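question for whoever is on the cluster today: can someone run the full assembly for these? two chains, 423 residues total. i dont have access anymore since they changed the login thing
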Amino acid sequence: MNCKEMPQYLISLLYNDVTDTEAAEIRRHIESCSYCRQTFQEIEGTSRILAQWEDESPNANFTFVSEPTIGFKSWWEWLKNLSLGRRLVIAIPVFACAALVLLAAINFRASYQNGQWAVSVSLIPQTQNADQETRLTQSLDQNQREILTQVSKMISESEQQQQYNTSMVLARFAQEMQERRQSDLRLVGQQLEGLQQTTEGRFVQTNDVLDNLIRFASYQLEKE
Amino acid sequence: MTDARLIEEFLNGDTNAFNTLIWRWERPLYNFVYRTVGEKETSKDICQIAFIRMYKQLNTLRDRDKFSSWLYRIALNLCRDEMKKKKRQAKTYWDDLCSDDGTIDTLAQMEDQQTKQPDDLCHHSHISEILKNALMVLPEEQRIVIVMKQYQDLKFIEIADILKEPVNTIKSRLYYGLRTLRKTLEASQLGKEVLLNEL
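^ ran it for u. tokens below:
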């Protein structure tokens, strides 16, 4: 083995295309020859750098043959070739649906009451509980209806009572007003009678004074 | 299911088998073409044409166990056609614009050209971009061998079968390709940074 043959041997060693015996022989030469050692390090390093360029997705649809039906295997191939993001977009709804179906299959029940969660799982459908729940719901509905009827009845009675009270207050007020009017009229009549008597008395006095004046005048005339 | 089995099913009328073949091969084939021609859109076009040829000529494939080599050969021929077309276009372009021969033969020159475009700076700094540029300045045959071995992980005998060359020639091209690539990286600033990171 000499340096002239080394390019092919170094490549064979680099890409593991040699038998163990050949590999050992090449390595022995590399250890003894600084030029070949350095060359091998260089091509090995370059190969490592090249490996950093990762494969890219073509982001294109190359399929052009119409497909009447897609079998499981085709689906599997298709899924395998999808990018991680697309796989997640498909996987999340599928798993969510599967989880819902599973929960329905095991009769999963969850409830929240007074700050506590209650979870139950059963392989047998819980029909009795469902009937009880239906009956309870019906009874609650009936109670609610009765309470509503009672409340509306109480409201109407209260309205009638209010109307009666209002009419009574109004009647009392009207009676009081009538009495006050009668007393006022009586008082006015009395005052008018008093005024009349006073006026008549003054008329009599005025008449007497006028008679006396006439008499005095007549007497004076006679005297003259 | 093996490729040979899928081919058999496709030839028996199962179109799903053909699509499965495409789904299985679109990623490796695209990456092979992209690393060989260096342009994404062109690579997609080449892959599409390669798959159409595959569809038309699959019945002519005698040894179905060598399907991958056959498919790579189709893609490689298309890549070579594309690169020839590019060379002609580049030659005409530079003949029109430059007084000298105008060919870009180093990564540094390519970097100089690209650094004039500020929008590309961020993209350019990406390691895959640096490696792509470094590969693009390699001689075509060396680049093809490097891509086939380094990225497609084909056996030397398979590469020899695709390229119709002896295994020793393939190894020799790979050796000189890797060394030239190293020198190309060392000659450019970004390439040096990549080499330093590797160390």
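summary bc i know u wont read the tokens: Residues 142 and 177 of chain B are 5 Å apart (CA to CA). Chain B touches chain A through 48 residues (CB under 8 Å).
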